[in-house]
Amino acid sequence: RSVNTSDLSVQRTNDDAQVSKLSCVDKGYFRDDFLKYFVRRASRRSPLINRGYFSRVLALRQILQEFHAHLTSQGVSTVQILSLGAGFDTSFFNLQAPGPNGVRWFEVDFAEVTKRKAAIIAGNEPLRKLLGPAESQSIQLDEGRITAEAYNLLPGDLRDTRACQAALEAAGFDPACPTYVLAECVLVYMEPEDSASVVRWLGHWLPTAAFVVYEQIKPNDAFGKQMISNLEARGCPLKGIAVTSDLAAHIRRFTGNGWQRADAKDMSTIYRLHLDPAEKKRAEQLEIFDEFEEWHMIQDHYCLVLGVNGGGDKLTGFGLKQQKQ
Ligand code: SAM
């Protein structure tokens, strides 16, 4: 399948996401010692954008940590992470920095993106040294592929699930190992039948897995229409949003495609009830903020969805948990 202009535009959304995340790091919203290597030109974002990315990053960090902690408490010593459309996401490096943790990390993105990411990793010692023992590392810059003990970066088009599965198997991905799948602002950019086939492929392949989706919803009200036309103007249509337009549709995409259970919340709810209150309090004091109406609108138009295949009872009790506020 050839890469078209719409593919190129969606690849650029990756750069945009990392610039916004770095803006948060620079303001102190969260720590990330590795993002700076992946951003060519840093730019300061508005308090509104910063707070949105803070909420996104904290929510995703929390649920990944809960998944890991849940399985560790079940005596599981190795878990896999599969990040779809990972872009220049730095979660692997942040998680790996304190030391080995029994996590095997796999990322898939278009070759155009993984080639750039592989070159950045190869060219920066603080990143390269976290991949695992030097003798386990294979970095193929021309293909945009890295395989190493702890980290695997694989070029692939998610519209071709067979090729993605073959690439994962060749890199040593083990479908029997408990796996956390992440699709952060990815599936919504795909045609609905293509994203459904990704969900179905993994639902049938992975018996013990959690699949977390973070993306836009609610295309039909005034704010949703504006959000969509802003992205369309930048060449990045949200091709999937008409189908996964609300939380119920997101849940159905999982339960109708091989996943045993699913849950979904909008980000207003996640922010209010699920995020660590101490972290929120700290973040809310970082910048003067008065755009409350717009903030609530934005949060209402993003969601966090969790699909689970329980693997017997290994993931019993794992879900989107509220925290005492
Ligand atoms: N997940 C990262 C994050 O949130 O920081 C990057 C998100 S960026 C908005 C969307 C990413 O999905 C881009 O890196 C893009 O190349 C990737 N992507 C979109 N469609 C894809 C496809 N069919 N196959 C592989 N990657 C895809």
Provide a descriptive summary of the structure in words:
It comes from Coccomyxa viridis. Keywords: Cytoplasm, Membrane, Methyltransferase, S-adenosyl-L-methionine, Transferase. Its EC number is 2.1.1.233. The chain is α/β, with parallel strands linked by helices and 325 residues long. The chain has a single domain (55-310), classed as 3-Layer(aba) Sandwich (Rossmann fold). It has helices at residues 5-27, 47-73, 91-96, 111-122, 125-128, 161-170, 192-205, 222-233, 247-255, 267-274, 277-284, 292-300, and strands spanning 79-84, 103-109, 138-140, 145-147, 151-155, 179-184, 208-216, 261-266, 302-310. It has a nine-stranded mixed beta sheet, with helices on both faces. Helix 1 crosses helix 2 and helix 10 packs across helix 12 (292-300). It is globular, with a radius of gyration of 19 Å. The chain starts with a helix and ends in a 15-residue tail after the last strand.
Distance between the termini: 49 Å
What is the number of helical segments per DSSP (H or I, 4+ residues)? 12
Instruction: Return the structural class.
Output: alpha/beta
Q: Which spans of ≥5 residues are poorly predicted at pLDDT below 50?
A: none
Strand content: 15-25%
Broad shape = globular
Q: What molecules are bound to this protein?
A: S-adenosylmethionine
**Which architecture would the CATH scheme give at its second level?**
3-Layer(aba) Sandwich
Write down the domain tally: 1
CATH first level: Alpha Beta
CATH fold annotation: Rossmann fold
Q: List how many beta strands DSSP finds.
A: 9
